[in-house]
Amino acid sequence: MPFAFADAGAETRPLHVLQPDDLASWAGQQDDATRNWIEASSFSGALGTALMIPGPDGRPKAALAGYGTAAQRARHRFPLAAALPQLAPGTYEIAGGIAPENLPNETLGWLLAAYGFSRYRENAPNTPGLVAPDGVEATRIEALARGEALTRDLINTPANDMGPEALEAAARNLAGTFGADIAVTIGEALITRNLPLIHAVGRASAQEPRLIDMRWGETGPTLTLVGKGVCFDTGGLNLKPGSSMGLMKKDMGGAANVLGLAQIIMALNLPLRLRVLIPAVENSVSPESFRPQDILISRKGLTVEINNTDAEGRLVLADALALADEEMPDLIVSMATLTGAARVALGPDLAPFYTDDESLAAALQASGTEAADPLWRMPFWEPYESMIEPGIADLDNAPSGGMAGSITAALFLRRFVEATPRYAHFDIYGWQPSAAPGRSKGGLGQGPRAILGALDKVLPL
């Protein structure tokens, strides 16, 4: 099974994880042959290095992995994974050198290092096997890895194979695997069900817009995940330049992240009632396109002036959030690749989130640090509310001025969540620009592990 720990066996090799300052002490406890081999190899314990130790027959009997200094490790989510390309094929058992509190993340990084996007050509790295160390919840780590792999696969798939129909199929496959209920509202039925913004954004595409609604679990607190599923974003009539359109297959990254998180929750059989809402559309150009200065009426009844058709993600989320809010779940979380302003503020590696709930914010921040899924809290800044009020309608989907774009988008979304006691919005990037240990270049989960870790702190699980 992919992204799984190996079984311990006769061919398992011990892996000694060593920092530079610990190498001399460790080597001093070994036999002469091992010490001489280390000295001859110039192995120093630097991050991203490894050394195979030969036995009497010349075959590797053990391995060393460089763990680097604390300053070097701070630059990586999964420092141990940096050494994996230097290890010989086989199965390893970690034989010390990693603090117990760091083992869950380091073993997760090891499993994630095996990810490669192989839909169109074989691309999986030849990653060695790992036996789950004592004290590590193997089932949980494997679930995290598989959820992340699902998210990456969905984002990495180009729009010709991951349009609204394929995104629906992926959700249906997930629902079928875990016995979840799923209902999908498509095309003109969106108008009948009072989801007009989703319809308006997606009606220009060759594939009809739809709302995916998945439910799982019968008891426990209620959690609703809302993910932006814009499968490709041309910008609509406010057409993007080619340089900005190149990565728009990832504009359904919010949907991919909530589906990955949903898979983890269901695989771990958490005691809660889960709902996943995904407005799946393509923002295309045709005679059916919605236009700048159109005024649209949302499900909630709020009117929205369209001042940029490229600010479509908040529109489809608005209807989905209003629908979610009507049930007043214990917690709503929205995830979206929403604004370039968030990238300007925090870059691609750090995901901003918004919430008015102090205990939820603290839980997310702490869990993000613990789970190597870092977040940064941004403010629902009340003085900027006037920026999203155009005068001619209740709301403006693209305030002029170019300032505080991520904040004004979050404030826009908050207008559609009023009854639910707890709400958090994540303005993610969903993409790894260059390969790093445990993180291949391409689609990326941002926030699911932090959210998962926070659930038992903010919901009565």
TrEMBL record:
GO BP field: proteolysis
Cited InterPro entries: Leucine_aapep/pepB, Macro_dom-like, Peptidase_M17_C, Peptidase_M17_N_1
Family: Belongs to the peptidase M17 family.
UniProt name for this protein: Leucyl aminopeptidase
One cellular-component annotation, GO: cytoplasm
Origin: domain of life: Bacteria
Key words, A-Z: Aminopeptidase, Hydrolase, Manganese, Protease
Upper lineage: Bacteria, Pseudomonadati, Pseudomonadota, Alphaproteobacteria, Rhodobacterales
Pfam family, one: Peptidase_M17_N_1
GO molecular function: manganese ion binding; metalloaminopeptidase activity
Residue ranges constituting the Cytosol aminopeptidase domain according to the UniProt record: 308-315
